[in-house]
Amino acid sequence: MASNYNRKSASSGSRKPRGRAAGGYRAAPAARTDARSQRNAAQGSFRASRANPAPRSNPVPRANPVPRSNPVPRANLSGSYPGASRDGVHLRSVRVGDARASRNRRMGSAKPSARSFNVMPVFIAVGVVVAVLVVSFLVLRASNVFEIEDVSVTGVEHLTSEEMMALIAVPEGATLLQVDKKGIEDRLLKDAWIEKAKVSAAFPHTLKVEVTERVIRAVVEVPSEDGSEVKRWAIASDGMWLMPIPDQDSEAGRKTSQQIYDDIAAALVITDVPYSTKPEMGTYCNDPNVTNALEVVVGLTTDLSDQVKSVAATETESTTITLDNGIEIVFGSSDNIRDKERVCLKIMEEYEGSLAYINVSDPKSPTWRAL
Hints:
Blueprint: H1 2-11, H2 35-51, E1 80-86, E2 89-92, H3 96-142, E3 150-154, H4 161-168, H5 181-189, E4 194-202, E5 206-213, E6 216-223, E7 230-236, E8 241-244, H6 251-254, H7 258-266, E9 268-271, H8 288-299, H9 302-305, E10 308-312, E11 320-323, E12 328-330, H10 337-350, E13 355-359, E14 367-370
Parallel strand pairs: 3-5, 6-9, 9-10, 12-13
Antiparallel strand pairs: 1-2, 4-5, 6-7, 7-8, 10-11, 11-12, 13-14
């Protein structure tokens, strides 16, 4: 019977362990063939396959980390393991990328506060200094600490002291911090004689006024509308009508600066002015004949301009200058003034002492007449 038992076991797929006696084992029950047994067997094999997956062909062994002698627990990090703890301290885990991002956020949020902490005291200090300066200025401005006691004027030759004080017009009790310097400059520039003006404070009690005056370039003999009389007017190099010239012995002449009469004596005279010319003090000349005559004289160099005695401004094309030696030179318009002057000087040099008339209105075809 023993041999029969062994054959049956082989046919059913059962094995007997080697090296052990056959009597130590019970016979395996026969496999059930019903549907329930098959289903249970299939479920069991599926569970076994999930619980014990097949091993990888080439598993990579993990290195065993060296345990720390005194591990420091990490706290306040996201991603804690539920229920994990060590010595009463909850252990948490975090990814390296999350830790770096958290650190960068902390550093970034700290920078603005650090800058504001360093800059704010500077702003506060500057604000305090500015406030102190403003308050100090207002206090000094309201006080008479810098009251104007003296006015220093430079550059004035043609205006009298009375005329200058009337133009400056410093209010009584004004201080260097209160006085309207720009207003004074504007009043000065309204006067025909004054070309430039600068007003400044010279602490503690002096107002400084620097003036650049216009210079008389010519005296224009302006006829009245009916031609019954001629009025002399001083005109500057830029065409500004400076003033009508009063008779020196008159009351107005006695109030006029002596420098004006000295300049008039040395200035050339513009004659034969059209009747339509109407000068006005403090305005620029708009008569083309007078303007052209002035430009001719101003455009001449020292070699010839010093010899000019008068200029006839009847018409632009026939503008004529008269030299001290009596020679008349027709210049015409002020165009090509340098070429015309060069031709005149050459003719005068060639016919020195024998000339009475030169016409260089066309410098390419000059004409002259000898005595």
